[in-house]
Amino acid sequence: MDKHTVLRDYFGYSDFRPGQEELIGAILSGRDAFGIMPTGGGKSICYQVPAMLLPGVTFVISPLISLMQDQVTALRQAGVPAAYINSSLSLEQLRTVFSNARAGKYKIVYVAPERLETESFARLADGLSVDLVAVDEAHCISQWGQEFRPSYLKIVDFIKSLRRRPVVAAFTATATEEVRRDVERILELRDPVKIVTGFDRPNLRYEVMRPKQKNTELVRYIRKHGNRSGIVYCATRKKVESVCGLLRECGIAATRYHAGLDEEERRKNQEDFLFDRCTVMVATNAFGMGIDKSNVRYVIHYNMPKSLEAYYQEAGRAGRDGESADCLMLFSAGDIMTARFLIENGSESRELSAEERARILEADLGRLEIMAGYCKTTECYRGYILDYFGQSHPKSCGNCGNCSAVFDNKDITTEAQMILSCIKRIETKLDYNVGATLLMDTLRGGHTDKIRALRLDKLSTYGLMRNDKPQEIKLYIDRLEELGYIYTDKKYKALHLTDKAGAVLFRGEKVIFKRKKEAPAKKKKQKSITAQPEIHDTFEELRALRRRIADEEGMPAFVVFTDAALRDMAEKMPVTEAEFLEVSGVGLAKLQKYGKVFLKKIRELVAGRCDGDQNTDS
Ligand code: ADP
Ligand code: ZN
Asked: pTM of whole model > 0.90?
């Protein structure tokens, strides 16, 4: 057997994805390997295929218990002998796994990092021929990352304790250079073949909305997507509770996840989501790493996360199966305040000096600014993300909210002059600067105590914009800040003019406001996973069949077949076993297990279609 045969017969795929073949080749030739690929890029195949071809056993170090179990279930489904060792096993089960491992019954054994230190595991490993140690989510080894796990530091000692050094392969989706360097250094990779695939996820459609009412928009969006799985991320536990409550009141099968729930409930809710018993998961960022549910069709951020990196990771949990999926941000200016508050008041468990804290705070606020820039950009969203990760890209991707939007260019020079000169006048009068609220009140000719006390109603700019809506003025102010005419000082959050402002005030520079046009006329067609109605119906039929089988076998539906496999099936409509094998994601084991029922169903559907055709003919 070679790597192509394994890919086809076990996993049912005809081609490798970018990077996979090189990494697999390296491992099989005895070289260490380091794969940096985005979520959904197909990292698992990179160690699973070599594991089948190497004579001994492969250990996979993985941080999450729930993930291991799913991976092993999926592997067994594909006919790969695999097992896992972690704290969820009883002593009895552990004994069975150990004795099977000793008897050479597994090609792949998943291990939790804490296990590596135990005496019993060391003895087991000592008696086995370990050819490959694959470290999944390798960024957990770095203290720079957000997901540092001290137990990951033990991996090197474990590798050293083995009689013969196996090939070591590390995998991560992290984008930061610091973390990558840490992985190589701490894991002591030896001259690894390093592959960094692109960070683009072409099947994800990025969009940012600024709805007046987030709740209304959220419910509207989720309803439109029917029974498709999705995740809603909120900034706080409290928000998770209220949003989840709201969705349930609207009759949507939602569940929740945050660190304030006890372990039992977290586990249950996660499972409800995994098994499609609940359509929507409302969660804080505690929900995520290792969520291997491949058919998540949308990720909505109810609040803006604290960094673009975090956003990319969280949004990236959509569409792991490669089918199209949405990443939607519901943005409001208040989100920036909330995020800033969370950063400034974040509990830092590690003991740090005042200097270090200040340095981290500054870095965090810098990251927040980049995140906010994403929400406000009028350029391609995908491009903005790829820029951040240092990857080149075309100017327009054609598959994001901004690329498909129609913009109008509004000349707001007059409004800009009013705002800028009002800032100037207030500064001259008071000898200090004020924030957006007071500025807006002055421009709109408000009658507040503060305005009277400060005598701002005596300014020539008082009431200049009394006919403009406050949201509108706020947008102008934001835009002027983005364009670099004003800036907000960090300490008092007061607005100041920059040197650039003079050009608008005194030298006739024009200010153009580029913004998305609301397109009320053309109603967007409901997006569906399959374009043609006939294929769509078939897909739904196959989906129902998958659901039934998954329920019977007590497995998540996507472990039986992914959405991608079902769609391919609906398109190809195989009626023979040979044709069934052509479907992407169908290997020999799945053919044997599910071929009969699915073929039967498809033949029925084909027959039904022929009848239908005859009827319309006559
Ligand atoms: P990652 O761990 O990088 O996030 P996975 O290993 O979970 O990604 O793979 C994501 C999805 O892509 C899975 O459904 C997997 O079966 C599928 N996949 C992986 N490699 C291929 C391939 N060569 N062809 C088609 N699908 C693939
Ligand atoms: Zn774009």
From this structure: no
